[in-house]
Amino acid sequence: MTSTTPRKGEEPVSTGPDAPKIFLKNCIFVKEFTFIADLFRDKVVFENCIFLGEANFKKITFENTVSFNNCVFRKPVNFYQTNFMGTVSFTGAVFKEPVIFQYIKLYKNMLLRKTSFEKSLNLAYMTFMESGFLEPYKINIKPFKAGSDIDYDNGSSWSNEECLDTRKVISNEDAQETYRI
């Protein structure tokens, strides 16, 4: 494995065969971020990134490791019907607004180490495939009420019928399913 010469104070970036094909570090995404792909075969790393707008990763199959370590999401995040074939890590991530993992398929592990959820979290209908499992450690889930006053129908991608219905909030049923998991 080789690496590029780092700038002063930076760690070397791996360029070997196991290196991520997308490696974004210390980035700030000012507007809505939509990851467009049906299938992504390579490792994806977002490290210490800030998402100021909504983040949309729905209906994607990630065949390799995906990392969102130490990222901050200031607006809603959507992983609806996403398939994680490799490890997915949210270590140290902070979700300031609702996050949807509804109908995801998890083939390996999802790391939720020191992860903070400040608004609603939807894990409803998550499917654990093969050896898939959650790995929570010191996570912080602030209390929220199902049927809260969050408005998803403000012209954003959240008004999509296949993701959220006209109730505009996490349903009581989804909240119960999330807490069951």
Keywords:
181 residues, six-stranded parallel β-sheet, globular
Q: What order do the helices and strands follow?
A: EEEEEEEEEEEEEEEEEEEEEEH
Helical fraction equals under 10%
Q: Could you describe the largest sheet, including whether it forms a barrel?
A: 6 strands, parallel
User: Which oligomeric form is depicted?
Assistant: single chain
Find the structural class using helix and strand composition. mainly beta
As a percent range, the share of strand residues is 25-35%
Query: Which strand order do you get reading across the main beta sheet?
Result: 1-5-9-13-17-21
Number of helices, where a helix is a run of at least 4 consecutive DSSP H or I residues: 1
- Rg (CA only): 16 Å
Quick one: how many beta strands? Answer: 22
In short:
With about 180 residues, this protein is mainly beta.
What does this structure look like?
This protein is mainly beta and 181 residues long. The chain contains one helix and 22 strands. The protein has one helix at 172-180; strands at residues 22-25, 28-29, 33-34, 39-40, 44-47, 50-51, 55-56, 61-62, 66-67, 72-73, 77-78, 83-84, 88-89, 94-95, 99-100, 105-106, 109-113, 116-117, 121-122, 127-128, 133-137, 140-141. Strands 1-5-9-13-17-21 form a six-stranded parallel sheet, with no helix packed on it. The protein is globular and about 40 Å long. The model is unreliable at 1-7, 10-15 and 148-168 (pLDDT under 50).
